[in-house]
Amino acid sequence: MSHHGVGPRAVMRSVAFLTAGVLAAPLLTACGEEDPAGRPAAGPDIAPAARDRIADGGTLRWAVDAVPETFNTFQADADPTSARVADAVLPSMYRLDAGGRPQVDTDYLESAKIVEREPRQVVLYKLHQEAVWSDGREIGAADFVAQWRALSGKDSAYWTARNAGYERIEKVERGANDLEVRVTFARPYADWKSLFSPLYPKQVTGTPDAFNDGARKKLNVTAGPFAVKDIDRKGGKVTLTRNPRWWGRQAKLSELVLRAVPRDKRAEALAKGEVDIAEIDSSQAQRVMLAGKEARGPEGSAGPRGSASPQGSGHVRGAAQGLGGPLAGVGGTLVQGGGAALTPAQSLRSWAIAHGSDEKAAGKETSARKKRRAALAEYSAQQSALRGFEVRRSLEPAFTQLALNGADGPLADERVRRAVARALDREELAALVLKPLGLPAAPVGSHLALSGQAAYADNSGALGGQDTDEARALLADAGWEEGGPLRETEKAAGAEGEKTAGSKEEKPEKKSEKKSEKKSDDAADKKAEKKTGDEDTYVVGDDNKPYETDDDSPLARDGKENAPGAYAPRGTRAPGDAARAPLAKNGKPLTLRFVLPSGPGTESLRTVGERIAVMLEQVGIRTEISKVADDSYFKDHIANGQYDLALYSWPTSAFPATDARPIYAKPVPAADGSLSIEQNYTRVGTNQVDQLFDQAISTLDESETRSLIRKADARIWAAAGSIPLYQRPQLYAARPHLANAGAFGFQTPVYEDMGFLKKGATAPESPTSK
Known about the structure:
By secondary structure, the chain is an alpha+beta fold. It is built from 20 helices and 25 strands. It has an 8-stranded mixed beta sheet with strand order 11-23-12-20-18-19-15-14, with helices on both faces. Strands 1-10-9-8 form a 4-stranded mixed beta sheet, covered by helices on one side. It has a 4-stranded antiparallel beta sheet with strand order 4-5-7-6, covered by helices on one side. α7 packs across α9 and α8 (344-354) packs across α9 (359-386).
């Protein structure tokens, strides 16, 4: 788990109702006539094409975060690239469709079903008769037995990160013939379809030594459309090649190269032609889309998808409204220098200094102008190269949430947590992130599934929507009063109240860094007034000044000048009655420490966080915002409980009864006196939620499982430990003639169908461009 969204499998009216733990009956009923799961908010955007339109051969270069430390996805340090390699080279019994629902993978299975329910659950797998490992051996019961024993948790010699489901198995054995595998469960297991995906050969799982070390640095035996050809750790590449023993449809690509490229360097790598496809963040997506608009010319006309237009200017002037790159100034027009968005006033000041009588200042400014011109030339060249790419957009199977640490401080009171939730306009926050990207902007209604997934239902009514008056009433009921006497203190009243500004991990920025981030001298002065002794920490509500974003990205604005609903220009004062006077209790102000990441690619989180701070200010809650380094954000703050409020993402799973339980389980005291929280970093949980998860995982009736999951979600909403905000955008830059690859959404990639279109063939229009 992180704000990057690594999955948990790789690695919820009145105060009387709250006290009694009762929810309104309609929220807990089973499905009605209409399926509440609905449809996915956005489908895959992968430029789908039939195999006969794709050329045979070719190498696809795919940007990934790093060469994996291990190729064993069941180990603690497995990462998304470990899973990507496994998807391409190893068997999976089930794959996910576009709605995030498991479907039998017919390349490996003829069928899989429950054949006995009493006295024990028995699942019978019938394997594909041609399925073989790359060494020629048939895939069979021996591989299933070895994997069960390794992951059952009974032998501590196996260093496993997870064994969910495998510990419920009683035995695995050969069926009526070599193509059948019978799995008998000691206890009923609803999520049995999650097991044996991926399936490793017995050479990897047969012994502790092989499991712990054999698949860390290599995978000698595989059984997918691709096989591992080379692992170049020094060069940062993993090369996959066609598996000559593959019995399914032959892979269209000759090779698939996974190349390690840092996320903040991906636009540069694309421009240099080092990769053909890369997952990118919103700011990089804006650059690629801007380059594409320039390539189509001022009329915005576009040819068929998959064919590049020769039209377009060699620079990036005339940016479309709302698509501001790092060199964009007012209105998106290119003004000055590499990465420094100079306003016309700043440009005039620069010219005056460079031509002034102060020779020393003139020399420095002339040098700076030369650097800006060089950076401008480099940026313009990159923009020209980025015309050869398009952005494929969908929604990731993950959501961003506001986490409320209920361990101690004001948020230990459920009424205060609910007040925070009722102060939020979740629709506005979703639109803030998704609307500029052309994606559906609807708030997420469940902690345990997303729209389109089988277990989804919008249970947010268990907590209620935005209601400022209700939020203020809840705070008053909790004893927080306006205008009470305040003690002199600089400490937050929440879980971080013991921590002063300027802590070790929150070092002040260098002056040179601050200068490059200024939007104007006046804005910098205003922001400086908010600081509380640390350049990365400031209190919203201390000065009764209007909200300011920390960047000028499209996420901070509507993209249209003076459009209805657009936000006021920077510096516009809020109406006099907009901000609520700060609340206090027992002489302490209600101030919550809000921790946000500071690294590249997290601009949207910071923008959303600062908008949340303004919403909370309207009900009298002040926030002390601390921006911390990405590498310490999770381990030093979220996992350790050193925060009151935080933004991070959780993936959703096709198997929430298994995968989501550790995230929402009630913390319990450990033997050493500490609190065992599993993955529940909000420290908020209830016995009822635990019981509903236990029931859901033990029933073999799929509709009953879905009903129980929805009931659990309603109670999670009511507890207000975390507030789902929006589904994360999934953005890929890809060459237009690359087919069947891109933003997959819920869908499992089909690696054998990826490839480059034949000459003259065109891919369908992107669903997000319609």
